[in-house]
Specification:
The complex is a heterodimer of chains A (278) and B (443).
Chain A: E1 5-16, E2 19-30, E3 34-38, H1 45-52, E4 60-66, E5 72-74, H2 80-85, E6 89-91, H3 104-111, H4 113-119, H5 124-127, H6 131-150, H7 166-178, E7 184-188, H8 196-213, E8 216-220, H9 224-230, E9 233-238, E10 241-246, H10 248-253, H11 255-262, H12 266-276
Parallel strand pairs in A: 3-8, 3-9, 6-7, 7-8
Antiparallel strand pairs in A: 1-2, 1-4, 4-5, 9-10
Helix pairs in contact in A: 3-6, 3-7, 6-7
Chain B: H1 6-41, E1 44-48, E2 54-58, H2 60-84, H3 95-122, H4 127-152, H5 161-178, H6 182-201, H7 209-229, H8 231-234, E3 240-241, H9 260-264, H10 271-296, H11 299-309, H12 311-316, H13 321-347, E4 349-350, H14 357-370, H15 375-391, H16 399-413
Antiparallel strand pairs in B: 1-2, 3-4
Helix pairs in contact in B: 1-2, 4-10, 4-13, 4-14, 4-15, 5-6, 5-7, 5-13, 6-13, 10-11, 10-13, 11-13, 14-15
Classes of the chains: A alpha/beta (278), B mainly alpha (443).
Chain lengths: 278, 443
């Protein structure tokens, strides 16, 4: 089974001065599956994300990503843009980070930068308008059109991204990440701020990405209806430590998870205190 | 529904009353400020007497007139503002006028271009107009070059004149020391300037906004100081003279037997050279424009604009922000270098005095005034700043004042420049311009 992990996080720790945000965390995300990372506020979920996507350099531990063809990358050794360019890990942000002054289509075109740079012969072929460049540009526009259709924004392709409604911006950011043709898609709270209908269409979109493209997804989410509906596997963090790692149904019944989210009854506290002799 | 409810009328009346009190109060405060400001500046006139002693006399009449002007002017402005309504409401321009304005806007670029081509024909006898045209076009080119760095990539560069200087001195030194022709030196000047652009780019990669501005400003000064002090190479403050004039692919534009006039069998006139220089800088500027427009539609140009919008998102998409910034600096610097080489060959003499911070500020003002990222806006702004400045020459000592007032008014009415909206680089159905509220200015 170890071969089937697209992402293996091993003993990952991240310290900010004296604060241990993530402590000796190990988990794996399976290929072609949706893995959710949940936990109460401040549990260290986004820190894990930032370590995986290269925005933080982990204090210790390894993060190994293995492509379908068996090529493997140590993500903690790659720096920021190379993780997306070489290791093919795409991400979205908790607070949307689109290019607001560019159109929806342009946002998706920027995401295909590296492929287009090669096609334009590092700009020189593109400058003289070589036919190979024109072909590459047209196919990039077609890919953008495909994703705009997938997220239902084809009508608004030429509108500025900053003018789109909030829910559309969330979906556009996911489409933009998908335009980099990633092996692993990391979504940081994609359902935050969405209403019930928008959340449902988001779940649908993520399931279709998994089914049609076979892209593995790692997501942080607070909306339990989304998490329980679409995840194949859930990892629960609390205070930077993993407290559970199982399928959705098992997580739902796990007393430790319930305690982390809801606290424990008073008599249970008493029982623990007696055990510890307090 | 025929008459408004009495309560509402009362409320409106109360608001009016409050409005009058508010206007009066504001005017009074403005007048007070004017009184304090002008009491010494205008109220008291000082001069040196015949034996060097200080003599002064009071001018309370002028002071009173000034304060009264401010008082009534403030009332007038406030009334105008209330009549127009808040700035957001578009009540002044009816839609028919707007649509015809849009049509005029689309026609303005081709008309301007055709007119520019015809300038040497129309004003063949007016040396002054031709010289002014060359000057304006030089600044158009500089503005377009800086536009790549500031307008597209959003990197505030206050030391652009450094690359202008590098280009000018490259041509001057190569031509006077090695007898290289203008057409060989032009690309070399561009390459050298681009090289210095990359050199400046490296240390400032991590800086943004104010810090970037300060470092680039310092860079501009460093280049100027090196030119002043490296006497053995650059001639120091004496500059370099006797820089060769450009030739038309080897044919000199001079009054000699092998000159162009002699070859064509026409009478020699110094205007030939001026016209040639005019078309030369026009070609260089149009090249800059063409390349920039092309680059905007290529991945590198989109990456520049994306960098201006959100650098973190760029990195998450696998864009190498280091090389992207460096290419922006290098491209902008290269065009600056071309313009510098042209400047050197036009003047025939260059000295460090031509490359002061004022030039950087002027070019940046052109870019900001034109609307950052807009090619047409930059051209119009250069025309207004350089040509307009000449227009005010008749006003003598009030020239700077009028110029300043014009700038302030422009900044009030068009804070994002003459052309504040952004045109998308690619579209599926129809290209619609993007309002400047959404476009980031770069930090």
């Amino acid at each position: 089974m170890a071969d089937n992990h697209i992402l293996a996080v091993d003993n990952l720790s991240m310290r900010f001065g004296g604060i241990v945000a993530v402590n000796e965390l190990s988990f794996a995300a399976q290929r072609g599956k949706i893995t959710a990372l949940i936990g109460p506020n401040g549990a260290g979920k986004t820190t894990v994300f930032n370590c995986i996507t290269g925005f933080y350099k982990p204090t210790s531990g390894t993060i190994r990503l293995t492509h379908d063809d068996g090529k493997s990358f140590q993500l903690q050794r790659l720096n920021d843009f190379r993780i997306s360019k070489i290791a093919k890990v795409a991400r979205t942000f908790q607070n949307i980070r689109l290019f607001p002054g560019m159109t929806a289509l342009e946002n998706l075109m920027v995401a295909q930068h590296n492929a287009l740079m090669r096609a334009s012969g590092l700009t020189f072929l593109g400058l003289i308008g070589a036919p190979s460049w024109r072909k590459a540009e047209n196919s990039a526009i077609e890919l953008s059109r495909f994703w705009l259709k997938q997220i239902g924004l084809l009508e608004r392709a030429d509108d500025a991204a900053g003018n789109l409604p909030y829910g559309d911006q969330r979906r556009l950011e996911i489409a933009r990440a998908m335009c980099t043709e990633p092996a692993l898609l990391c979504l940081d709270e994609p359902a935050a701020g969405l209403n019930a209908r928008e959340s449902a269409s988001l779940s649908e979109l993520l399931l279709s990405i998994r089914a049609d493209r076979g892209t593995s997804i790692l997501l942080i989410e607070h909306d339990m209806s989304v998490v329980m509906e679409i995840s194949d596997h859930i990892v629960v963090l609390d205070y930077g430590v993993k407290i559970a790692d199982a399928a959705p149904q098992a997580i739902r019944d796990d007393p430790k998870v319930i305690a982390a989210y809801l606290g424990v009854e008073d008599d249970e506290v008493d029982a623990v205190e007696q055990e510890l002799g307090l | 529904m025929t008459t408004p409810a009495p309560a509402a009328t009362a409320a409106v009346a109360a608001k009016r009353g409050l409005g009058a009190a508010f206007i009066f109060k504001k005017a009074l405060i403005s007048a007070l400020v004017a009184l304090v400001l002008f009491s010494l500046m205008i109220g008291v006139r000082t001069e040196a007497g015949p034996e060097g002693q200080l003599i002064y006399w009071t001018r309370f009449g002028d002071l009173g007139a000034m304060v009264a002007t401010v008082f009534f002017g403030s009332i007038a402005i406030e009334l105008l503002r209330q009549w127009w309504g808040p700035i957001e409401t578009v009540r002044v321009i009816p839609p028919r006028v707007t649509s015809s304005l849009a049509l005029a806007r689309r026609a303005i670029a081709p008309i301007l271009l055709i007119f520019t081509f015809l300038v040497p024909v129309i004003f063949y006898d007016q040396r002054y107009i031709l010289d002014l045209g060359i000057l304006v076009l030089t600044y158009v080119m500089l503005g377009w070059g800086l536009n790549v760095v500031v307008g597209l990539a959003g990197l505030l560069d206050l030391g652009y004149v450094a690359f202008y200087a590098v280009g000018a001195y490259s041509y001057a030194l190569l031509a006077t020391n090695f007898d290289l022709s203008f057409w060989v030196c032009l690309p070399l000047a561009g390459i050298l300037a681009a090289f210095w652009g990359v050199l400046l780019g490296f240390p400032v990669l991590r800086l943004r906004g104010d810090y970037l501005a300060i470092v680039t400003l310092a860079f501009g000064e460093i280049i100027r100081l090196v030119i002043i002090n490296w006497q053995s190479l650059t001639g120091g403050p004496n500059g370099i003279s006797g820089i060769p004039r450009p030739s038309l692919f080897g044919i000199p534009l001079s009054n000699t037997d092998d000159g162009l006039a002699a070859l064509l069998g026409i009478e020699y006139s110094p205007t030939h050279r001026i016209v040639f220089l005019f078309y030369l800088i026009l070609a260089l500027a149009l090249l800059t424009n063409w390349v920039t427009i092309r680059l905007r539609r290529l991945p590198i140009g989109r990456a520049w604009e994306a960098l201006r919008e959100d650098e973190v998102a760029c990195r998450a998409l696998g864009i190498n922000t280091t090389t992207t910034k460096l290419t922006a600096f290098a491209t902008g610097a290269m065009f600056g270098g071309f313009a510098g080489a042209f400047f050197a060959t036009r003047q025939g003499f260059i000295s460090p005095e031509s490359f002061t911070f004022q030039e950087s500020a002027l070019v940046l003002a052109i870019v900001v005034l034109g609307g950052m990222g807009s090619q047409l806006g930059v051209a119009l702004a250069a025309l207004a700043m350089i040509g307009g400045f000449e227009l005010f020459r008749g006003l003598d000592q009030y020239r700077m004042l009028v110029f300043g007032v014009a700038m302030v008014l422009l900044m009030i009415w068009r804070p994002r420049g003459l052309i504040g909206h952004r045109a998308p680089t690619v579209f599926l159905e129809h290209s619609q311009t993007i309002s400047s509220d959404l476009v980031k200015e770069g930090r």
